[in-house]
Amino acid sequence: MKIIPRVMKLVPTFLAGFFLFAFAGSSAYAQPVGDIISLVENHYGGVKTMTAQVVQKNFLRSMDKTQQFEGTLWIKKPGKLPIDYTNGQVILVDGKSALFYSRKSEQMIKKTFADVQQMNIPVAFLLGAAHIRDDFDVLQPDPKSPRFLELLPRKPGAAMKKLVLTADENGRITALTIFDRSGNTTEITLSEVNEGVVLDDKQFSFKAPKGTEVIEE
User: Fold this and answer.
1) Three-state secondary structure call for residue 210
2) Residue 26, Cβ density class (10 Å: 0-12 exposed, 13-18 middle, ≥19 buried)
3) Is residue 71 within a helix (H) or strand (E), and if so which, with residue range?
């Protein structure tokens, strides 16, 4: 009979310890947004070269239509980024200009590299991912998914309304979704990512086939 009171006394202590552990674990799980930003920025601050496979889905609001593209991405800092799509489209950013080539239309559009955000090249965000806080206000909509972030451009008149990214536990971005001001969205998923690889500078040049119409803007 004397054992029962001792057990009863232990129960509240055990429960108190359990709840303390549970809340401590929950608090540790809900990483502050500042820590997540630092994790991503520190990761990309150390990435000089990168390759990845890309799946891109474009939702066009005016047509109520979603298009899907697949391609290969290369990055070499500072400012160099080509992406070669399997449908014959090529985008090349070299830090001075941006080229958009379409095999189907036999056209290449060349633009001055004035503002990546105005060019609607979602993957180009990766070139500046080490400086998120310089260009965006960052929200963490769900503390239970701390590495899911919403980025709001600080620059007035930016083409994108919002950028949503998902990062892994190392700060590597695995997905990007850009929402523009016309209601269109571009969703990018990255896989087979390799960082710190040796890349030839020839990879970052493109010569349009003979007969291609070149348009400079």
Assistant:
1) coil
2) exposed
3) strand 65-76
